[in-house]
């Protein structure tokens, strides 16, 4: 029962005895001021997560490239850029966002299996650090475009090491049956091709084996395979400047024990040193672990419904606001905003499914939660800072909700709620 545990985002989200606080700001005041559903991020939580990587990397030749697909609000990106983060992007849209937020182009790595011509051109023109190339077709296309533009594309091959990250099948990316990367068996061959292609400069090697990983072994397995590849490349006279181990570190949603970045980094540096590759710059692409527990989704109970075998709390957030539960069967903690021990909270404790207003039975945010609820209560869905708002949509013509950032006792509206009119403002009807 999440309500009895410390919030997943503690100490930044915490009870002050009476109610849930985001840093020094009352969550119910935020709900009153900005309406619900509402994403609330804590700047201090973002900073603490950033430091969990930055500290162990002090005086190391390393670059953290925030996997911005996890949360691409400009204010969030701006913080990471100010703290010295690079960015892992997967589209021309993400490139534009990162640049707008103040990213240095030479700290941007461009991943993704389906880069289009305009995206490759834009990245070349911006001067990104490298393309993480995911196929031979893509390599040839980048070579062609760079040659046409009269420039050279820095390239790192994203190798698929065929390692089981032991995570949800939808977010596992390093198995040979996954669409990602270049099979490790043919990687040396592709490097040789890259070495002779015009417009290509080989700079690195990359892998990303999956997301919400809670075991260190898959990383070390993948790294070992990559280092064996580097041995082969050295024999072919191909030398690299950096090695990118991707992102993927998990967070606590329920009872997981996440790997501390320092632990992974120690093990990685030890292996690089023992194999004589510590001259390489280490690149990382963490997403979820930098933002996941820095955000909550605040929602208000609309109605309670008691069926014979189920109790439903119908809230104003839905699968269009937070897709993870229904897409991955993902567990997110649910916290009452009013402290569960508060005496004014007299409702009977029952087991509820927390569901949204969308016309789909799959529209649920949490199942089988023991809660004392009454109409208009506020709830906080925990661990919503990663893959939350970014995966939201407008299904059922629902405006996407607002996002705010709390910093101490200050609150910044970093994205206003969409209006209903905005939802169809650019649509065109046929002539009558
Ligand atoms: C290439 C790449 N890099 C980085 C990430 C960030 O992953 P995570 O949010 O699990 O750290 C992802 C997403 O899984 C990815 O596909
Ligand atoms: N969207 C996924 C993570 C995808 C990682 C992207 N490669 C999640 O919410 O857990």
TrEMBL record:
<feature type="domain" description="Orn/DAP/Arg decarboxylase 2 C-terminal">
    <location>
        <begin position="39"/>
        <end position="385"/>
    </location>
</feature>
<dbReference type="InterPro" id="IPR009006">
    <property type="entry name" value="Ala_racemase/Decarboxylase_C"/>
</dbReference>
<keyword id="KW-0456">Lyase</keyword>
<feature type="binding site">
    <location>
        <position position="387"/>
    </location>
    <ligand>
        <name>substrate</name>
    </ligand>
</feature>
<keyword id="KW-0210">Decarboxylase</keyword>
<dbReference type="InterPro" id="IPR002986">
    <property type="entry name" value="DAP_deCOOHase_LysA"/>
</dbReference>
<comment type="function">
    <text>Specifically catalyzes the decarboxylation of meso-diaminopimelate (meso-DAP) to L-lysine.</text>
</comment>
<comment type="subunit">
    <text>Homodimer.</text>
</comment>
<feature type="binding site">
    <location>
        <position position="328"/>
    </location>
    <ligand>
        <name>substrate</name>
    </ligand>
</feature>
<feature type="binding site">
    <location>
        <position position="387"/>
    </location>
    <ligand>
        <name>pyridoxal 5'-phosphate</name>
    </ligand>
</feature>
<dbReference type="InterPro" id="IPR022644">
    <property type="entry name" value="De-COase2_N"/>
</dbReference>
<dbReference type="GO" id="GO:0008836">
    <property type="term" value="F:diaminopimelate decarboxylase activity"/>
</dbReference>
<feature type="binding site">
    <location>
        <position position="288"/>
    </location>
    <ligand>
        <name>substrate</name>
    </ligand>
</feature>
<dbReference type="GO" id="GO:0030170">
    <property type="term" value="F:pyridoxal phosphate binding"/>
</dbReference>
<feature type="modified residue" description="N6-(pyridoxal phosphate)lysine">
    <location>
        <position position="69"/>
    </location>
</feature>
<comment type="pathway">
    <text>Amino-acid biosynthesis; L-lysine biosynthesis via DAP pathway; L-lysine from DL-2,6-diaminopimelate: step 1/1.</text>
</comment>
<dbReference type="InterPro" id="IPR029066">
    <property type="entry name" value="PLP-binding_barrel"/>
</dbReference>
<dbReference type="Pfam" id="PF02784">
    <property type="entry name" value="Orn_Arg_deC_N"/>
</dbReference>
<dbReference type="InterPro" id="IPR022643">
    <property type="entry name" value="De-COase2_C"/>
</dbReference>
<feature type="binding site">
    <location>
        <position position="324"/>
    </location>
    <ligand>
        <name>substrate</name>
    </ligand>
</feature>
<keyword id="KW-0663">Pyridoxal phosphate</keyword>
<dbReference type="Pfam" id="PF00278">
    <property type="entry name" value="Orn_DAP_Arg_deC"/>
</dbReference>
<keyword id="KW-0457">Lysine biosynthesis</keyword>
<feature type="binding site">
    <location>
        <position position="360"/>
    </location>
    <ligand>
        <name>substrate</name>
    </ligand>
</feature>
<comment type="similarity">
    <text>Belongs to the Orn/Lys/Arg decarboxylase class-II family. LysA subfamily.</text>
</comment>
<feature type="domain" description="Orn/DAP/Arg decarboxylase 2 N-terminal">
    <location>
        <begin position="45"/>
        <end position="291"/>
    </location>
</feature>
<feature type="binding site">
    <location>
        <begin position="285"/>
        <end position="288"/>
    </location>
    <ligand>
        <name>pyridoxal 5'-phosphate</name>
    </ligand>
</feature>
<protein>
    <recommendedName>
        <fullName>Diaminopimelate decarboxylase</fullName>
        <ecNumber>4.1.1.20</ecNumber>
    </recommendedName>
</protein>
<feature type="active site" description="Proton donor">
    <location>
        <position position="359"/>
    </location>
</feature>
<feature type="binding site">
    <location>
        <position position="248"/>
    </location>
    <ligand>
        <name>pyridoxal 5'-phosphate</name>
    </ligand>
</feature>
<dbReference type="GO" id="GO:0009089">
    <property type="term" value="P:lysine biosynthetic process via diaminopimelate"/>
</dbReference>
<keyword id="KW-0028">Amino-acid biosynthesis</keyword>
<dbReference type="InterPro" id="IPR000183">
    <property type="entry name" value="Orn/DAP/Arg_de-COase"/>
</dbReference>
